[in-house]
């Protein structure tokens, strides 16, 4: 029998482009990373997964998947519509992968990129259940302690359900008897995030649950499926908390070639003092100057990019010896042009912002970073969030991340 090291474990991530609940859902950024790229990242970091394929009918998703390190299988229209099953996409991806010389698949995983907080430990958990423990299929579940109710159906002495007018009835409990949590059997909720199947058995059964199905417990706090805009907003709000302890959650010098800084609200506390002659004054933090000097010594390209026209922006840039573009209406266009002129790939850029006018730039770069106290939407779209507010040393904190040391 082949050992786990000999088994070919293919992770398939279905990611069609026709989402209606959230347009372009699989490209929506959570923690500054598109959903499809988040799934690819965790699959590639898995101990047992040998190959990662994204099945899609969308060129934008395909580009993001390749950029994250996955192979791409073009999904035909017949299995790309609203009624197409995930199983059909997985079988097609297996066939295409093997036809292109990938070799026979021993174990196949179905990984849903609409579960943004899926982690590599969960992927390894379902894979190990089949590869190492002999299960036929496996899925991620979370402990569930709630009482489930259903309208219009309840048990009776007759076979037909009682009409809806009869009210609600218990599904996993008798409503006349309410046992304590510790006295009830443990229920589990299917997370919808990751499944593993013996490839041969999956082909024969045609569905993901067959034979002995192993339940792989996951952290209930990470269970979230993005089906509508409210789910996406919740995911973005949770990302700074749930991503904070993950490997690669903070940028290092190896990750970036340039740092681009907004001014108001990131290098200042976003307040303006006005003297009797109408001149505007702002306060900056000396620690940020120290951090910027350290980044310059590390030979990172630097830029201050601001919509603010006040000459104080240029004055501060001169003091810091950093190039500046200010009074810019479309910062994203200016940033894109600057990257082209400098020969820097946008995915190698760290951009620091605090307000909604920074979001277009967040969408361009590989490392969008928000300062503490940034707008809620901006924090949700960021890949990392400082613990220090703007104007209070946030740039120094970012410099310490990048350089891997406290700056003194």
UniProtKB/TrEMBL annotation:
The keyword Transport does not apply. CDD domains: CMP-NeuAc_Synthase (cd02513). It catalyses: an N-acylneuraminate + CTP = a CMP-N-acyl-beta-neuraminate + diphosphate. The keyword Nucleus does not apply. Coiled coil: none annotated. It comes from the Bacteria. Keywords: Hydrolase, Magnesium, Metal-binding, Nucleotidyltransferase, Transferase. Gene3D superfamilies: HAD superfamily/HAD-like (3.40.50.1000), Spore Coat Polysaccharide Biosynthesis Protein SpsA, Chain A (3.90.550.10). Pathway: Amino-sugar metabolism; N-acetylneuraminate metabolism. Its cofactor is Mg(2+). InterPro entries: CMP-NeuNAc_synthase, Cytidylyl_trans, HAD-like_sf, HAD_sf, KdsC_fam, Nucleotide-diphossugar_trans. Residues 161-184 are annotated as: Disordered. One of its GO terms (molecular function) is nucleotidyltransferase activity. Its EC number is 2.7.7.43. Residues 172-184 have a biased composition (Basic and acidic residues). PANTHER family: HAD SUPERFAMILY MEMBERS CMAS AND KDSC, N-ACYLNEURAMINATE CYTIDYLYLTRANSFERASE. Belongs to the CMP-NeuNAc synthase family. Belongs to the KdsC family. Homotetramer. This is N-acylneuraminate cytidylyltransferase. It comes from Streptomyces coffeae.
């Amino acid at each position: 029998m082949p050992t786990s090291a000999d088994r070919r474990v293919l992770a398939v991530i279905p990611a069609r482009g026709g989402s209606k609940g959230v347009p372009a859902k699989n490209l929506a950024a959570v923690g500054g990373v598109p959903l499809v790229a988040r799934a690819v990242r965790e699959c590639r970091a898995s101990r047992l997964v040998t190959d990662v394929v994204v099945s899609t009918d969308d060129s934008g998703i395909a580009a993001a998947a390749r950029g994250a390190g996955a192979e791409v299988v073009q999904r035909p229209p017949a299995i790309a519509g609203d009624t197409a099953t995930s199983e059909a996409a997985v079988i097609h991806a297996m066939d295409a992968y093997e036809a292109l010389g990938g070799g026979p698949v021993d174990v196949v995983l179905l990984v849903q990129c609409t579960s943004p907080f899926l982690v590599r430990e969960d992927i390894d958990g379902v894979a190990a259940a089949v590869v190492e423990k002999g299960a036929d299929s496996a899925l991620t579940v979370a402990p569930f302690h709630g009482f489930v109710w259903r309208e219009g159906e309840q048990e009776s002495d007759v076979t037909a359900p009682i009409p809806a007018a009869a009210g609600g009835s218990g599904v996993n409990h008798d409503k006349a008897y309410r046992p304590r949590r510790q006295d009830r059997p443990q229920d589990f909720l299917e997370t919808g995030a990751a499944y593993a199947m013996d490839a041969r058995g999956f082909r024969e059964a045609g569905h993901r649950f067959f034979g002995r199905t192993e339940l792989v417990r996951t952290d209930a706090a990470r269970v979230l499926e993005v089906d509508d805009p409210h789910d996406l907003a919740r995911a973005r709000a949770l990302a700074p908390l749930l991503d904070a302890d993950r490997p690669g959650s903070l940028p290092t010098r190896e990750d970036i070639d340039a740092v681009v800084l907004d001014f108001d609200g990131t290098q200042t506390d976003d307040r303006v003092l006005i003297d009797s002659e109408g001149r505007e004054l702002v306060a900056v933090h000396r620690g940020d100057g120290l951090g910027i000097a350290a980044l310059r010594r590390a030979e990172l390209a630097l830029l201050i990019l601001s919509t603010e026209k006040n000459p104080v922006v240029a004055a501060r840039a001169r003091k810091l010896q950093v190039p500046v573009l200010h009074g810019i209406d479309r910062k994203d266009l200016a940033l894109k042009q600057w990257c082209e002129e400098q020969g820097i790939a946008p995915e190698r850029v760290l951009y620091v912002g605090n307000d909604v006018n920074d979001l277009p730039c967040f969408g361009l770069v590989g490392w969008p970073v928000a300062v503490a106290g940034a707008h809620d939407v901006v924090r949700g779209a960021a890949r990392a969030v400082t613990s220090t507010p703007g104007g209070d040393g946030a740039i120094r904190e970012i410099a310490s991340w990048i350089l891997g040391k406290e700056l003194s």
